[in-house]
Amino acid sequence: MEQLNREFLFYQTRKKLPFIQRAEGISMWDDAGKEYMDACSGAVICNIGYGDRRIADVIAEQAQETFFAYRTQFENGPAVQLAGDLVKYSAPHLNRVFYVSGGSEAVESAMKLCRQYFYNRGEGSRYLFISRVPSYHGSTLGALALTSYASLEIPFRPMIQTYPKIPAPYCYRCVYHKEYPQCDLECARALETTILEQGPQNVAAFVVEPIVGASIGALVPPEDYFSIIQETCGKYGIFLILDEVMTGFGRTGKLFGYEHWDVEADIVALSKGMASGYYPLGGIMTRNSIVDEVMRSGGFGHGHTYAGNPMACAVGLEVFRIVREEHLTENSAGMGRLLKAGLKGLEERYGMIGQVRGKGLLLALELVRDRDTREPFPAEKEVNLLLTDMAWEEGLIIYPRRPINGLSGDHVLIAPPLIVNEDQVHEIVDRLDRALKRVMKKL
Length: 443
Ligand SMILES: Cc1ncc(COP(=O)(O)O)c(C=O)c1O
Hints:
By secondary structure, this protein is α/β, with parallel strands linked by helices. Helices cover 36% and strands 16% of the residues. A 7-stranded mixed sheet has the order 4-10-9-8-7-5-6, sandwiched between helices. β2 (27-30) and β3 (35-38) form a beta hairpin. Residues 43, 102-104, 107, 136-139, 209, 213-214, 243, 245-246, 271 line the site of pyridoxal-5'-phosphate.
């Protein structure tokens, strides 16, 4: 492969990447034969692991029938069956499904469905979406307007809506300099203050990840966070949109992240683990009453050409069957506990690990210069990238980000495929241990 001219492609990375040769289970091999354990499932997507023959068989079978049929011209079996399964296994009030092909599209669709609902009801003033700092909800302009992660937004700011934002419950670096529970969850109460500042009649929804994925790194909110959020949304008649693009389909040890709390979302955005990287697929789920109101005016004025095509849905159907029948959600909970214990063991030995956090197999390490003061490393040292590079040398793939609004601080996500077993968990921790040793030497 080395002779191929790579100049035509460009990505965010400045590094020369190896070519992928093959992937199976939780391992990947480059074209030089080096093996890597994928401890972040790509971008926290490949939940059922790589090289699953059953998916290849489903694709071959579906290919004999049809790859594509346009959704306004034909209904297709896999789309209808998958919608049925999603409704059956999600919260009882989530009984309608709308397909897209990725996470950003799912978030955009949730925003537009919400907006069209209020417009149809004669509440056309409601167009503001409140979200959090920091956060990541996608790269398209609507989803980016909800996102707060400076390095991804700054060049595009003049092009996007300026929506109000409230602080995320990032207790490790509380913006109010308070401690939970004495803080009375000021960050959750900020939702009400912000709604009142903006005028409740102008606010459409609050958009939030149940457990923060990339932007802060596996951040689990305090236990009573969502009860305050739910109550506030209800009080002002605004929707709660849960972005489950990363947390859905077993990732956090529950089938959906919202199951960790008594919280009822009006709209849920899904993608990533929905087809586990085998095909582009995403969707939103919502209540009958919202869809009925939108359909009254002739339908949802929104959609994408590839959405709900038979091949994507056939793959999604099989992936979801595997997740359920092989108890991958339960494995995520069990292996997540074991992996977290392993990471805690590393925390005891490496002062640079400031915090280990997360649930199920969505875990993260925050890295700090001084554990007592929580002082981050100087941003220019890019310690998150350094650890990722050292892990790469050890044959371990992890996912680096910066928790202080994308500008500074260092964390890495540790989120292997949900099929990971005990031996592999130990091996991940061993390789990470060796990578941390290398980092210590370099700092
Ligand atoms: C929570 C969340 N929402 C939305 C997205 C955007 O998904 P996509 O990259 O498929 O557009 C991501 C991607 O990482 C995500 O983590």
